Amino acid sequence: MMRVLVFVTVVTTVCTGVSGAADVDPRIARLESAMLRALGMTHRPRPKRGATVPRHMLELYGRQEKLRAQTAGEQSGCQFPDVTVPGNIVRNFKGKYHDAVDPSPTACSSQGVTYSVSAVAAEEFVRSAELRVPIPDDPRVWSVAKAYTVSVYRVLQPGKAASADSLELLQSHVITPFDRDDVKTFNIVSAVQHWQRRAEDNHGLLVSVEAVKAEDGTRLDSCPQFSITDAELFVISTDMQQCRSRDKRSARTVDSSNGP
């Protein structure tokens, strides 16, 4: 594998030159194209400079690398539900936030958010979809309530004014001071799978926050400091065709330690 990577680097250097200008030599272009196809790629990666990698993506990469080292030499297929299987596709989506009317009279804060999952192809199998909500560490949040209940709903009908009939509860969590400055995950895989099949039904999510009653029995009517505008959608899917192509390539792996 190392030999293949070095060869691709050489081809790229010859093709682009020192200045990065494209070389028009068709032989080099065909050679590069063949090497990329052998690696299961259709074009050269062009990462954006200065892009910020989400923390949980780095954590997933670290776990993958650790497990890959532990299972070196073992045959690995594309099986469910192991998140380290070859062929997995991991995506991180940023949401578009908008005001939403929460029908619950006990909610102290609510936020509408929409995630476009059009990048998930129809042939992919969505195995995991987590809404990751960072829990604030603001002392003002915890000085007024001992706990909060955060609920995530799928909006079934378009419109700013939601009603109980137009919402589907996906998951709720009770948030305590022990969760402060952490991330709480909500399982919304059923919603993402539905949006993948029917994009026209994607009317977004409603994230509702309710303050648990204090010792004296009072309930907060407002909790603006409990911000939920930094939530991110983390989706893991698998393209079975990609799994088969990777298995096929692994069967032709050459041991570089034995020489050319």
UniProtKB/TrEMBL annotation:
UniProt keyword terms in alphabetical order: Disulfide bond, Growth factor, Secreted, Signal
Signal peptide: 1-20
Cell compartment(s), UniProt: Secreted
A Pfam entry, by short name: TGFb_propeptide
Main location class: secreted
Domain TGF-beta propeptide: 27-213
GO CC annotation: extracellular space
GO molecular function: cytokine activity; growth factor activity
InterPro entries: TGF-b_propeptide, TGF-beta-rel
Family: Belongs to the TGF-beta family.
Protein name: Univin-like
